[in-house]
Design goal:
This protein is 41% helix and 20% strand. The protein has 4 domains: 168 residues, Rossmann fold; 118 residues, Hect, E3 ligase catalytic domain fold, CATH 3.90.1750; 123 residues, no CATH class; 57 residues. The protein has a 4-stranded parallel sheet with strand order 4-3-5-6, with helices on both faces. It has a 3-stranded mixed sheet with strand order 11-17-18, covered by helices on one side. Strands 12-13-14 form a 3-stranded antiparallel sheet, with no helix packed on it. By secondary structure, the protein is an alpha/beta fold. Pfam families: Resolvase (PF00239), Zn_ribbon_recom (PF13408). InterPro entries: DNA_bind_recomb_sf (IPR038109), DNA_bind_recombinase_dom (IPR011109), Resolv_N (IPR006119), Resolvase-like_N_sf (IPR036162), SSR_resolvase (IPR050639), Zn_ribbon_recom_dom (IPR025827).
Length: 537
Amino acid sequence: MGKRARTPSDRGSYDVEAEWSTADLSLLDDLKRAEDLLPDDAPRALLSVRLSVLTDDTTSPVRQELDLRILARERGYRVVGVASDLNVSATKVPPWKRKELGDWLNNRAPEFDVLLFWKLDRFVRRLTDLSTMIDWCLKYGKNLVSKNDSIDLTTTAGKIMVTIVGGIAEIEAANTSTRVTSLWDYTKTQSAWLVGKPAYGYETAEDENGRVVLVINKDAYRALHWCRNAAMRPRQASARRIVKVLVRAGLCGPGLTTSTQLRRLRNPALMGYRVEEDKNGGVRRSKIVLGSDAKPIRVADPIFTEDEFNSLQAALDRRAKNQPTRAPGGATQFLGVLICADCGTNMTVQRNRVKDRSYMYLRCGKCKAGGHGAPNPHDIYSKLVEDVLKVLGDEPVMTREYRQGAEARKEQQRLEQSISYYMTGLEPGGRFTKTRFTKEQAEKTLDDLIKQLETIDPESTQDRWVAVHNGKTFRSQWEEGGMEAMAADLLRVGVKCKIKRSKVPGVRAPRIHMKLMIPKDVRDRLILKEDDFAEAF
């Protein structure tokens, strides 16, 4: 039987090659014709098709879609879309993070009532993911239906399964957290290497007893000792020079940075001790873990002796610039908002030190020498805040909320049935035309019902997103959250500020021109959208 690949006009191409036979296409047309006969208020179904790898042993996406369409016909559902996510692992990618299904769940929830999938393992492979999806469906009034599993949130068995799955998922999450915390706490006290990523300079191997141990990586050993010798010379090599030589020699990858290399050289794990991260005001460092005897726990042979390590630290301290503590949000405010007008790249803060004075400049990534540079970044931040508040400060803070139309639809249906009942009774020979009193009362009741029906907004009968004002303006919200909150909102909605620098004759600092670029649909973009699938959910 002849086969042809499905064309984009049919529904949209699959992500992997999936051929539709003539018989498949004929069945698809029959199923679509059957859908055309359904009433307008038929439940709307979204089909979820997923496959990790297309092989002869797997159920093809074509077969999954046709089986689900047949199930929809049997249940009286109208298919409104097919979310096909192929070459996607259900173990690694939960439903809400898949390209097509995730878009439906996060942005197009009002467009469907039922989510159909072929089999549970085609939908999720983690119990916690299933529990999250069940919670989401109950919150938004959706139903989950599986063709080959007894999952249906409208049946008694389905509701029982919801309770069981939710309880098991909660227990599993609590046990997992306890086990992970306990394992790490136990690992810190052991000299054997149990879990974790070794520090630079070491790698894991198996000893003669089959246990995992840390051994010294020969190439890293050579690189680290060369770095120490270079730092200990009378004319000490800079960190940038050290990195350049290591990359050129092939001892380190091309992505190595000076900050990464300095962290490696300052890690006390190079003495063979167990360490843990020590966050001190945003500065990333490692500190030695002490055992029950108040002595360092040795987990490997040392790359540097204590004397070698201490002398290296002293040499690094002599050349250190005593930079200020790393800011939690980074050195550059409004990163991604401030861009160069000439090359279009982000403007970032760079520090220059001349003798005892330190200077900060905003520079771009592609212009020669970073362009002319924009001095006094804080002045630019202040001007940007002033311009943004003028344009967007008085905009109300709107939050997207989901409204279901089920109750309004029931009320509309009740009123329509009642109106039909009274209209039939007022026809010649009807039950309300026998006396003048009953006719007048029926006409009065009919008028009241019609007025009630007219007050129902047609939109309220539909599942929909609505924007609700939370009582604040963005000016007040940004005053509470500071520049960090403003920067996050501007980046979210796509607001940009172009920085143009022009050289002034006889003046070292260039003239700065700022142009605020605001999207036309900024009001829609400013609406805050709740993340239903955040970790807390």
